[in-house]
Amino acid sequence: MRWILTQLVAYAGLIVSAVEVYGRCYRTIQYPDSQVNRLEITPDKRFLAAAGNPHIRLFDVNSNSPHPVISYDSHTSNVMAVGFQCDGNWMYSGSEDGTVKIWDLRTATCQREYESRAAVNTVVLHPNQKELISGDQNGNIRVWDLAANSCSCELVPEVDTAVRSLTVMWDGSMVVAANNRGTCYVWRLLKGTQTMTYFEPLHKLQAHDGYILKCLLSPEFCDPNRYLATASSDHTVKIWNVDGFTLERVLTGHQRWVWDCVFSVDGAYLITASSDTTARLWAMSTGETIRIVLLDLRRHRSAARTLRSLKYSGGSSGKRRVKLETRNLNMSSMIGGSVSVEFGCLRKYEVRRLSARKRSGRMVSVRASVASSPNTLELSKANAKQAEKMVRVGVLGASGYTGAEIVRLLANHPHFGITLMTADRKAGQSIGSVFPHLITQELPNMVAVKDADFSNVDAVFCCLPHGTTQEIIKGLPKGLKIVDLSADFRLRDINEYEEWYGLPHKAPELQKEAVYGLTEVLRGEIQNARLVANPGCYPTSIQLPLIPLIKAHLIEPRNIIIDAKSGVSGAGRGAKEAHLYTEIAEGLHSYGITKHRHVPEIEQGLSDASNSKITVSFTPHLMPMSRGMQSTIYVEMAPGVKVDDLYEHLNNTYQGEEFVRLLEKGVVPHTRHVRGSNYCLMNVFQDRIPGRAIIISVIDNLGCSTSHCFLRVICMPEGRNDASYILSM
Ligand SMILES: NC(=O)C1=CN([C@@H]2O[C@H](COP(=O)(O)OP(=O)(O)OC[C@H]3O[C@@H](n4cnc5c(N)ncnc54)[C@H](OP(=O)(O)O)[C@@H]3O)[C@@H](O)[C@H]2O)C=CC1
Ligand SMILES: CC(=O)N[C@@H](CCC(=O)OP(=O)(O)O)C(=O)O
């Protein structure tokens, strides 16, 4: 038997590696400008579709050309689902942009588009080839009747619980939807009178405690036995007997989330793919692992999202089966998300005959190429515990104020493990000895940046002083996702950086790819960025209220006056005379008047919002408090605009945002109310001078700004609070 594993890596760079069962990668295809979420092979096995962001690209399976044959370009966000009509005449896709599309394969034109109104996570084609079924992030399942060209049915099994995966029985008799709460909903599919297919509720199955990332019904050749496989974030895959939905087996062995699974054509095997960087082949008869393939992620440690999906390209598509062409178990691969394993497709009788004749040979071949286990096994005990988590994080500058804050927020997080921490003067020390509140955490000791090993790191928080950061980031492995807390990559114009920071820019090339990490404003761009420049504390508190008001032309872009105050921790932990207790306590003072380094950052963000150059008067003050920040902003309203309009607009803008809150009218935000939190609280008041308004915005400089783009998402409510979402941020 020969398998092909195809592996996709989520971030820029490598995407598809095809791996034979012998463990040898025989082809790698680059998809340099996006992550890849899903792969699928055409029914004729000639082309591989890779769903990225926001495009889908088709590669010739049998060619060595690194270039796609064609690109499908009209989605505007991550494409999460892709598949083909059984004759390969058209392709369907579903995207986080909230649409399901149908494409003419040859001309790459979008023939139809259906609005789902929420990010689409999964789409399947009914075996009748006439209905698409989609599942979305808000928990809706919709049936799109292709003949009527409309949505013929809408089901909401659990409100606001993301539908992660859908699967239809090969004969079109049943559909299963799996969700983020570990629940499967099963419907019997009946021929409808008004609509093509009628969904009759059949069963509700609490399959896992964690998320179900993939559910899959067994193929035709498995009959009369029928199984449902569910792959979960709890590291297991469960096999359910569809007859009564009793638990048949629990497949244990993966060390991290299991993203995908696929049955062999005869249903005798299951292949699973996990973020532990392995794919496993399981015998359905015993539930044992026959083979583990280590997917080569050495260069792509950041790709926890990598091993998303396995798919089996052979077999039937219901009654209208795809052309069956191979006699032995050759596979034309396909994938979804990241990994695809493929067996060839055989007629039913051929499978039976072959499995009887060749099974032993197949087993030998499989056993012979068991791969070694991942590097995580070599880690120390503390590290190993952290490395088991979904995303492995390195904190550079963990002995500083912001670094410690990130360690505090991540140390007990279910999906994030801290596998590396660095310090400068404190290199060699434990985090508990520097910050005793972290003494109970099992974390690795801090090391100097030059001694850091990034082989078990997926993402890095760089909490180093500005000026030191550019060169350090330049030297980091290219596959890492980086959130830089310093100011070193915030200014697009490097001349401005040099002018305001008085330093030469040492990584102009990297500057071009850096994305400014103000989540509420630039979430889409941040999702695709490798290097995110976390906003400064003052700019965070100022831009969050002003950007929406400027964009909506509710305030004048001139005469903006900002009076801002910061706690002393804003200056970092390094010893400076100006920050001694005796210099700070019992008084306040202004600093950086007209020349504070945050001015160009604030003006950059506001100018982008207005599409014209905005200048501001900004004066920061140091307050005798350890943490907290207030910006009091005086603005001129546009003609005819009232304070209530500003209020309503901010209210609407931030309604869906967890961490930005507009207080009740008249309520004054206090820095004490946000201490230790991620929140930005704001309010808007009428000035006594007609036509002017006063905006007050408070944050915790160490909480809100430190953690702005990344941690805000980590702390998102259920549904978005998962590592895959964060890695795609
Ligand atoms: N404080 C705040 O409110 C905010 C700060 N920021 C930015 O975040 C970054 C970190 O700030 P903060 O945590 O306050 O700073 P700290 O001074 O508290 O910490 C700096 C960290 O960097 C390490 N470090 C210092 N110099 C070097 C060097 N040359 N090479 C390698 N490591 C070094 C220090 O190690 P050691 O302790 O061993 O010397 C320490 O771990 C800064 O760029 C800051 O501008 C961003 C948002 C808010
Ligand atoms: C009190 C104090 O000194 N604050 C710092 C800013 C702190 C901050 O968070 O700015 P960055 O994110 O750019 O480091 C200052 O005024 O320079």
From TrEMBL:
What Pfam families does this protein's entry cite?
Semialdhyde_dh (PF01118), Semialdhyde_dhC_1 (PF22698), WD40 (PF00400)
Where do the WD repeat units fall?
Answer: 72-113, 113-146, 205-243, 251-292
SUPFAM superfamilies linked: Glyceraldehyde-3-phosphate dehydrogenase-like, C-terminal domain (SSF55347), NAD(P)-binding Rossmann-fold domains (SSF51735), WD40 repeat-like (SSF50978)
Q: Which InterPro entries match?
A: AGPR, AGPR_AS, AGPR_dimerisation_dom, AGPR_type-1, NAD(P)-bd_dom_sf, Semialdehyde_DH_NAD-bd, WD40/YVTN_repeat-like_dom_sf, WD40_PAC1
Which keywords label this protein?
Amino-acid biosynthesis, Arginine biosynthesis, NADP, Oxidoreductase, Repeat, WD repeat
Coiled-coil region(s) at which residues? none
Does this entry carry the keyword Nucleotidyltransferase?
Answer: no
Any GO BP: L-arginine biosynthetic process
Catalytic residues identified in the record: 537
Pathway given in the UniProt record? Amino-acid biosynthesis; L-arginine biosynthesis; N(2)-acetyl-L-ornithine from L-glutamate: step 3/4
Catalytic reactions of this protein: N-acetyl-L-glutamate 5-semialdehyde + phosphate + NADP(+) = N-acetyl-L-glutamyl 5-phosphate + NADPH + H(+)
Please name the top-level EC class of this enzyme.
Answer: oxidoreductase
E.C. designation(s): 1.2.1.38
Q: Which GO terms describe its molecular function?
A: N-acetyl-gamma-glutamyl-phosphate reductase activity; NAD binding; NADP+ binding
* Semialdehyde dehydrogenase NAD-binding domain: residues covered: 392-529
> Belongs to which family?
Belongs to the WD repeat LST8 family.
Query: What name is this protein filed under?
Result: Probable N-acetyl-gamma-glutamyl-phosphate reductase, chloroplastic
Record the organism.
Answer: Ensete ventricosum (Abyssinian banana)
